[in-house]
Automatic annotation (TrEMBL):
Protein origin, superkingdom: Eukaryota
Lineage, highest ranks first: Eukaryota, Viridiplantae, Streptophyta, Embryophyta, Tracheophyta
Biased segments, Basic residues type: 150-160
Official protein name in the record: Neprosin PEP catalytic domain-containing protein
UniProt-annotated stretches for the region Disordered: 149-171
PANTHER family: OS07G0205500 PROTEIN, PROTEIN, PUTATIVE (DUF239)-RELATED-RELATED
Amino acid sequence: MGLTEISGGHRGRILKGVLFLACLWGLISLSCAGRLSASRQKLEVQKHLKRLNKLPIKTIQSPDGDIIDCVHISHQPAFDHPFLKDHKIQTRPSYHPEGLFSENKMSMGPKERTKPITQLWHMNGKCPEDTIPIRRTKEEDVLRASSVKRYGKKKHRSIPKPRSADPDLMNESGHQHAIAYVQGDKYYGAKATINVWEPKIQQPNEFSLSQIWVLGGSFGEDLNSIEAGWQVSPDLYGDNNTRLFTYWTSDAYQATGCYNLLCSGFIQVNSEIAMGASISPISGYRNSQYDISILIWKDPKEGHWWMQFGSGYVLGYWPSFLFSYLADSASMIEWGGEVVNSQPDGHHTSTQMGSGHFPEEGFGKSSYFRNIQVVDSSNNLKAPKDLGTFTEQSNCYDVQTGNNGDWGHYFYYGGPGRNPNCT
């Protein structure tokens, strides 16, 4: 029976089979291999999406286009981790650090008063009790990554190295920083209040963030890091919105860890705040200032690392078993900004850090971290001792520290990137 006598459906299947065999035999070259590769990639992406996007009890459409899924607390991605199969969720920390700086006692003048902040999706609903809000991952999110495996992960070597005197070593990753830091002691947490901006990003593969780093170990391949703050990352989120984020790694960003809830690890217990969701409103130049408070600390009883957002949102925890060095304590704390400088057209990027303005411009114009504190071995929040500063190129992004009664230890930081003195 000739092909002309075969029904359309059968003919299609036979032709597909012939094409597949031809591909295998190398009779049809690159275009064929490309189609098979694209098909395999699509299948891989769909599998990954199925792993990440858990069945929701309720779904909320955010005004910015995000979909927020309210997922039962026991079905969140954390519990895909083999070590967490029999884990009993700790709904609250055993201890809070003592000596939390009271935001209510602050006596800032009218020009320096800051305002509360929320997330955009709150406009359209809230998640029920016993669920957590998870930003749904879309196919296009994963496809923007260099591979399915690298989706939701930072590139290697994105930690600032204040102790290094070699500018080539510090700059090899294209990441640039303006930070304050402490080292030389055992640290059990860190806190700061950070004002929130929407820095302009020059290239889609670049980002700008402001965060706290809680670090353990050396700067080698076994570095442990817990990070939290705000970021603008078109590559990760597909837009230029400012978003709350967390990150962790136990091997210097090689294989472990991820942003937000994009892998198993962080256990969220809060039903009101979504990791990776847009923050609103944003500070304006010479206008109202909006800031967020972030506290990360190690629970002395259970040993887990907890995160609190604002004055009342205890978000969840990183179980201590995820880490080697941080299973005990941190050896360094860093606060500040980071950008990627991909050197478009061979010039320094014009991606902004913070507000895009230098520290000397001060309140209402420059970005700040205020009320910087560390947690000591007695679970007390204290002012940091011997606060150092570091930036790779101060004519691109800079940092200036200060200390007063209202703001405690603070610093202004950031800059525009490319300018006449930074090319």
